[in-house]
Fold:
Amino acid sequence: MSTVSLSSAPATAVRVAKNRMSPVVTLSAGFLLVVVLVALLADWLAPLPYTAQNLAARLKPPLTESGGTTYWLGTDQLGRDILSRMIFAVRTSILIAVMGTLIGAIFGTMLGFIAARLRGFVDQAIMMLVDAQAAIPALFLALTMLAFFGNNIVLFIILISIDGWDRYTRLARGLVVSEQESDYINAVEALGAGPSRVILRHLLPNIAAALVVQATLNFPGTILLETSLSFLGLGVQPPGTSLGLMLGEGRRYLLNAWWIAVFPGLTIFLTTLSMSLFGDWLRDRLDPTSERH
Amino acid sequence: MFRFLALRSLRALLTVAICVSAVFIALRLAGDPAQIMLPSDTPPDVVAYYRDAWGLDRPLAEQYLRYIASAVRGDFGLSFADDRPAFAAVIEALPKTYLLGSSALMLALLIGLPLGILAALRHNRAADRLAMAVAVFGYAIPVFFLGILLILLFALKLRVLPSAGSDSLWHLILPTVTLGLPLAGRLARFARTATLEVLGKPYIRAARGRGVMPLGVIIRHALPNAAVPLLMFIGIEIGHILAGSAVVETIFAWPGIGRLLVDSVSTRDLAVVQAVIFTVTIIMVGANLLVDVVHILIDPRLGGFSRAVGKQA
Structure:
């Protein structure tokens, strides 16, 4: 019976297929590259300044020409060019998400290392904090802090980094605890290497892949946190712009001017979709410890 | 087992205590609570009255204990939106969120579970790839974007469903779909992984070898063993549902606690904000505790209910 041989036969074929990018993953990576380039080159790419108003051309549909300018993606309620605003919104959203991810990853990983190296009471205390963090959705915590402290961009970025630090702590702690038991760390320590050398030269490089994968998989959630808060009007404030803010503003004009909300929304969707697909591929490639099917 | 339950409950209580303390610390770091909590046009003598009433001139330790004591009683002060206890506003909004959240979870189970199991049974074939493509779309789409697309299509263009309010069951449909579809996507992916894992186990291979039909294998052997991870998954997803409710309830003007929080944050109605965050913490910690307890009860390896029954028999 052929059904009995459930697995194991085509293992090598799977391995080869896994390392090659499928067309979907290539497309995702390409889209992410475009997003990053747009964020970096916003000043050169945007046809108009993102705050430039043209009250004669309010709520114009895509591909409208008015006064010698073509509005490729239409205009909003103040006659601002949607395309130009989106280009700058991509910059804001990506910048905040990248900084939030970096801060969260570095802070979380450090706590994980501290917990794993010191163990005992410190370990317990840190893990209790992790539990507490997991008990409140990041969006709720961010909303509460914004209510207490009022909105400013530094606080906002720190709040964005809240989403996920606990996952890095958990991951780093678990990996370091198990790596510390391994022969090569024992050998390195027996040879007289100090703690900082063990951590920076040996432990960190060996768990870096798993951390990078975690960051990639976390990134869509971080973008969604920023865009959700801005969408609710509690994140990036005008005259600044972010993809979520544009969507939130466009919500009121859905019936007459769907393009204000739909183009930024589509951009967020494609970014998180590409990042998820790319992250899955990266996990299968880089992190041999994770489950895969 | 009782020792474990006691320890686990203690830990849950500790988590709640940490969260409440963190809110206290954040509130103090933000400045004078009387200034922050009261509307900005409050006369100075009224502010002074509240400073005295809330004991803000006493030692910090005493204030902290008073704070904890009133939090336990559900007393977070008055909402200045309508001058009633903040906790009453939360209690009123809670059933609405419960209704929305549970119907979204139901929708997710109805779509996601069959989709994931089907994908696992057709592993690496066309149906699997199609199901997973649908699932990825489902969980990558931002809820606010999905909500807006649904409003645009069903409420504004086709005019078949209401876009705002909570007067009838018709009002429940669009928010449920908005909150439920991303959940269904994650659930399908999860169900696929869990099923594949179970299908690889020796006892499944043995059942197949004995000639048990594939569907029989799934129903008799695979599903009961996938129940525990599924339960854990739902426990984790409660957080996503609550977080999603803040956005979905705002879009669809659904008067649950998510919208209450967003509104209170906009007006800086801090008493209500604290009451909501306290309630959400309790729900999350309680749900996770419940998941752990049920896990012990249904997994015989952990020495729970089934083993006790087995011994008696």
Q: What stands out?
A: The CA atoms of residues 228 and 244 of chain A lie 6 Å apart. The first strand of chain A starts at residue 64 and ends at 66. The longest helix of chain A spans residues 82-118.
